[in-house]
Specification:
Bound molecules: phosphoenolpyruvate
Largest sheet: 8 strands, parallel, barrel
Structural class: alpha/beta
Number of strands: 8
Distance between the termini: 17 Å
Strand content: 15-25%
Shape: globular
Order of helices and strands: EHEHEHEHHEHHEHHEHEH
Number of helices: 11
Length: about 250
């Protein structure tokens, strides 16, 4: 079932104490009576404490990444099983920073998706074009290829565990946001691309989040678009009052 979702990606910010402080502030400020799913993604080292801290709240916890491997000699990696063992059942896969700085290709991401699904995790699959792609009018092609190469190997039934997050790279952390119409245009294209391969039920049920400099001032207009089902929030997720205002805009 299509759901409204607002997720906060904390990236490599907040140590243990700061994480606890921000979680307390969020518990205080976030609306409790909202139908949307609220998720935060702190760093690996703070996931277990976040799960404990948020146990009796309406805020879920996601990891920012995980290994494509189940276990073994992969120094520094974190497996799906490790995440699940501390109560984390949702993971971001394919964030543009993982693609750009850690060389995560569509093919690696496809393996990560497979591993996450095999472990019954929910995947927030992130993708989006770079500025040059949009300038060259290649943005629809790029997005379609990212979906086909990284995600479309899954089965129809797997879509219950998939959330899509369209994040144009040129809008991430830059202060530059896609206009609500640009977001809607791409979200519609994404839904139609899913429909073409997996059919209408899957296409209508999948939640498609927008990410890229969403702020309290622009969230309402972006979220009002028909094919935008919520947001993946970076910078503004680190300030409880801003994140709460964004969540309240859904
Ligand atoms: C992100 O990192 O997923 C993101 C959308 O960042 P920002 O909101 O800061 O652009």
């Amino acid at each position: 079932m299509r759901q409204k979702i607002v997720a906060g990606n904390w990236k490599m910010h907040k140590n243990a104490e700061e994480t606890e402080d921000l979680l307390n502030e969020l518990i205080d400020k976030l609306p409790h009576d909202i139908e949307a799913q609220i998720i935060v993604a702190p760093t690996f080292t703070n996931l277990a404490s976040a799960v404990d801290h948020l146990e009796f709240t309406n805020i879920g916890v996601a990891a920012q990444n995980m290994s494509q491997f189940e276990s073994g000699a992969y120094t520094g990696e974190i497996s799906a099983d490790m995440l699940k063992s501390i109560g984390v059942n949702t993971v971001l896969i394919g964030h543009s920073e993982r693609r750009a700085y850690f060389n995560e290709t569509d093919f690696i991401l496809a393996d990560k998706v497979t591993t996450a699904l095999k472990n019954n995790m929910t995947v927030i699959f992130c993708f989006g074009e770079e500025l040059k792609d949009r300038q060259n009018k290649q943005h629809f092609n790029v997005v379609e290829n990212q979906l086909r190469d990284g995600l479309f190997h899954i089965k129809d039934k797997d879509w219950e565990q998939i959330v899509l997050a369209y994040e144009p790279v040129w809008a991430i952390g830059t202060g530059e946001t896609a206009t609500p119409d640009q977001a809607q245009e791409m979200h519609r294209f994404i839904r139609e691309t899913v429909r073409h391969t997996f059919g209408s039920n899957v296409a209508e049920d999948v939640s498609i989040l927008y990410g890229g400099s969403v702020k309290p001032e622009n969230a309402k207009e972006i979220f009002s678009k028909t094919d935008v089902d919520g947001g993946l929030i970076g910078g503004a997720a680190l300030k409880a009052s801003d994140f709460a205002a964004i969540v309240s805009s859904i």
